[in-house]
């Protein structure tokens, strides 16, 4: 006597097929919103490999740094600053070191040259954040903090581009790590660095665009108990 082999039937939820005995309800697809999106080799890397960047590795006892072949203040910021920001997507040595440290050096000594270049920095910043790579995002957040504080009115200049910059941050704002702050290898946990850096960045953006003389607002009304009724006690004196 032959027995029929029952086959499982994949069915979507809340359909007629899902009510059958041999139906297996297929769950929703896993969200890939937090998955990394590998970036292509940056233009910054190509310029460095062709020897068109005035930088070199400087080996020191406390770690590697970069040595500038020219004075940073003489650089054309319209050309070099967006180029270094393009290197934020890099994670390999020495490109990551050159891009990160080069940006901080240029922001330290850029002064009024930084503000006119802001529109050219938005696309590299957005590309770096869209990688979803925690190392890249941490570096980008710290660069944004430095950028906002590097010159006057930079925070105000970034406001029109918040929709492009803060979209990725909105996805990660509730992401937390339950791991310890240090891994077994002794390196600091990237997830915790990212979490703390993200919450500091909006504060500095808010400080930079906050009016220096905010409008004076009256204090809240205070209430006194008068039997069962509560009557407001006005503290704001009318002139």
Automatic annotation (TrEMBL):
It holds the Pfam family ParcG. GO terms for molecular function: Hsp70 protein binding; Hsp90 protein binding. Residues 227-239 have a biased composition (Basic and acidic residues). GO terms for cellular component: cytosol; neuron projection; vesicle. Residues 214-239 are annotated as: Disordered. This is PARK2 co-regulated.
């Amino acid at each position: 006597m032959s027995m029929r082999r029952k086959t499982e039937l994949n069915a979507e939820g809340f359909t007629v097929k899902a009510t059958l005995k041999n139906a297996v309800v297929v769950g929703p697809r896993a969200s890939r919103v937090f998955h990394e999106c590998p970036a292509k080799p940056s233009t910054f890397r190509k310029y460095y490999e062709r020897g068109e960047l005035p930088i070199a590795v400087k080996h020191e006892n406390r770690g590697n740094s970069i040595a500038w072949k020219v004075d940073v203040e003489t650089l054309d910021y319209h050309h070099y600053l967006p180029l270094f920001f393009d290197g934020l997507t890099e994670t390999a040595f020495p490109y990551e070191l050159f891009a990160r440290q080069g940006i901080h050096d240029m922001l330290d000594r850029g002064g009024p040259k930084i503000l006119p270049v802001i529109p050219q920095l938005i696309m590299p910043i957005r590309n770096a954040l869209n990688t979803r790579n925690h190392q890249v995002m941490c570096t980008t957040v710290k660069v944004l903090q430095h950028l906002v504080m590097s010159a006057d009115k930079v925070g105000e200049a970034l406001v029109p581009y918040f929709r492009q910059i803060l979209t990725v941050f909105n996805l990660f704002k509730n992401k937390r790590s339950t791991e310890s702050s240090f891994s077994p290898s002794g390196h600091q946990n990237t997830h915790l660095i990212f979490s703390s850096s993200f919450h500091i960045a909006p504060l500095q953006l808010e400080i930079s665009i906050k009016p220096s003389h905010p409008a004076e607002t009256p204090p809240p009304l205070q209430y006194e108990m008068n039997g069962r009724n509560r009557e407001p006690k006005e503290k704001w004196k009318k002139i």
